Amino acid sequence: MKAVWNTVKETLKQRIPAHSYRMWIEPIQFSKSKENHVVLSCPNVFYKKRVTDQYGDIIESELKRTSGNPCKVLFEVCNRKPAPNQNSQTIHQLPLPNITVQKYFGRQLKRDFTFDQFVVGSNNDFAYSAALSLASKKVSYKHSLLLLSKTGMGKSHLSQAIGHYILSEFPEEHVYYITAEEFMNEMVQAFKNNTIGEFKKKYRDKCDILLLEDIQYLSGKERTQVELSLTLDFLFSKDKKVIFSSCYAPAEIPKLDDKLRSHFSSGIITNIEPPHYRTRVRILQKKAQANGYHIPGEVTEYLAAELTEDVRQLESGLIGVTTKSSLLGTPIDLKLAESIVKNIARIRKNITIDTIKKLVCKHYSISTKDIISRSRKQCFCRPRQIAIYLARKYTDSPLQSIGRSFNRYHATALYAINSVECAIRKKSDLKSQVRFLCDKLESGKL
User: Fold this and answer.
1) Does the pLDDT value for residue 274 go beyond 70?
2) Which of 69, 216, 255, 290 is the most buried (most CB within 10 A)?
3) Which fold has domain 349-443?
């Protein structure tokens, strides 16, 4: 049967995408066979679950076709550690049921942001394979991964999936998940409280895997850039792994130290594109199943066809139809889905940079000439930054085009976007102003 399994692997190699075959099928080894059962060995429990769910049926079918006999496939984990020697002084505590001790710091990892819940398509297959390879330590020669995408494409999901996987398969490792802005704030507080030594020790001596989100926020933060660069030097010298995420490529981030830019670019860089139609269908099906929603196939296909921007928009559509159905006591059908999609998608198509300019100028009682002027007065500067932020949020225009529309370079436009996003998180008054303008744009009542 071992020869039969090798033949089956060659057949699967032709039927399954190359990256999937290398990741999931190639490592599987023939273990034994008895009666009408074939036992195959997998590296770990996570691997076993993934292979069983995704490839169990096709493997069983090919084994039956190749051998000419019906057979049942069983998977076993082959890398269990041997029992400790009785004379050993090491005491191993058995894991307690339903209790896990997490060795991570910083932000809490979202429970459903795992590899198992990530839907792979042609838009993100390389990013997925690179993330899983790095998490499973199959690419020992690379120490970092940079995930690039616009907001809502799944880079945070992949980043946290790496954390979950490492905590599951390498429990002795320490994972730190944090945003670049939080890193900066923590460093500033360490200097204020005279605890910078403890800050450095935590990141350099107690961190095995660093998950650093939104590195574009480091633009212009010179002291933070120096400290992070020194930290990365230390981590890489110890062969630690670092996963970065960003909305912009390192070369596009203004006011960034050359050494830090080099660190960001030194590992694997992968871009995540918007999902294609079939991938959007599978995303909706996966999320509906995970949340216990029962969505008719035609509704799923309609939502996937109409909501094309990003994963968050798909989630908004799914939540919209299920919530409206529940509140009104009506069935989920195409008519209900159309009413939800109408609210989500109709206005965005009519929003332009000029529309945003006019709305912002009207709200702040300034002229369109003022908003594109070179003046740095606060009464013009803040509305200009908000308008640039809204242009990025509601239009598909590239950063260079947005900058030109406001008589600015793309680096200045990026700074404006970062400035507004940071201010929104800190200042409730600005957050309410931006929310008001967003509501105006989305309602079409300009």
Assistant:
1) yes
2) 216
3) Chromosomal Replication Initiator Protein Dnaa; Chain: A; (1.10.1750)
